[in-house]
Structures are given as C-alpha cells and as structure tokens.
From TrEMBL:
Its main location: endoplasmic reticulum. The keyword Cell membrane does not apply. It is a single-pass type I membrane protein. Signal peptide: none annotated. It is found in: Endoplasmic reticulum membrane. Keywords: Carbohydrate metabolism, Endoplasmic reticulum, Glycoprotein, Membrane, Signal, Transmembrane, Transmembrane helix. This is Malectin domain-containing protein.
Length: 161
C-alpha cells in the first residue's frame, strides 16, 4: 500500500502547480492524521510574495507554537518526510529556533529558518524514517525566549518508499 499525505499547515486545501492536492490542516483523529495539540498552537498568515517556490500559497501560512505535534496513522514501512518552511514574521536574524523530531529522533537541531534563507523565502527539508508501530510522529519544539513561539512550519508531505 503506497501512502502519500500532503498537509498545508495552518492553511486551506490547496492544489499545487503539479496538480497535487494538499489537505487543509486539522486536529488529529484516530485512524487518520492531524495536529495532536491543535488548541495550544496558533496560525500566522501573510500575503507577502514568497521567493524560491512556484507554490507560494503553501508558504504563506504557518502553524506555530512552543510545541507542535503531528501524527499520521500509517502502515509500517519506510517513509520520506518533507517539511516546508518559510520565515514570514521575522525580518532579521532572531532567536526563534526549534528542534524537529521524527519518530522521537532529533533530525533538525537549533534550526533557524531566517538564518538559512532569510525572510519570505521557501525552504524544504527532507528526511527518511522507519515506521514500526503504525504511526509517524513529527514534533516541532521551539525554545526561543521570551516568546516560546519558535516552533513553526508551513506544510508536511509524507510518502511511503
């Protein structure tokens, strides 16, 4: 069984330039997928032009918070996880940093979007992971002070390999 789930975090359903559908963000439902701690998070949007992408709308909204957890109930196997980022708030290097965990393993440490690509610029990170317990979990942990809102992402795509 091939699995491919695309989610527009903090955004609405979207069809990209390759005619692929990205689902609107939602809270977690058993047997499906979603944000486990939706009420503890916020959405930030912009109408700014986002560079480095043909799919600008995917990068114009972010799910943000101190901790953000997404769970996908999927069949066991190997998956490619692609996370889309853009710094749509800060216009200078700031203390907004995060660690990103997939299946409990830290895959991005002290990650600062602005330091990598600046303001209003698309950035994608891809990693592979194994699912052995019937679900794939992605956790974003922000540790900026004093706001604790450093965790943020624009979209997630998971695909079985």
């Amino acid at each position: 069984v091939k699995v491919c789930i695309r989610v527009n975090l903090g955004g609405r359903k979207y069809k990209d330039k390759q005619e692929k559908v990205w689902y609107a963000d939602k809270g977690y439902v058993t047997g499906s997928w979603g944000c486990l701690n939706l009420p503890e998070t916020d959405i930030l949007t912009t109408l700014d032009v986002i560079s480095n992408t043909a799919n600008m709308e995917l990068f114009q909204s972010i799910r943000m918070g101190e901790n953000i957890i997404y769970r996908f109930d999927v069949v066991n196997g190997t998956y490619e996880v692609r996370i889309l980022f853009a710094e749509i708030y800060w216009e200078t290097s700031a203390a907004e940093q995060q660690n990103v965990y997939i299946q409990g393993k830290k895959v991005l440490k002290n990650f600062n979007i602005f330091d990598e690509v600046g303001h209003d610029c698309a950035l994608e990170k891809s990693m592979r992971t194994k699912v052995e317990q019937g679900y794939l979990e992605i956790k974003f942990v922000g540790y900026s002070l004093p706001m604790h809102s450093g965790a943020r992402a624009c979209a997630i795509k998971i695909k079985s390999i």
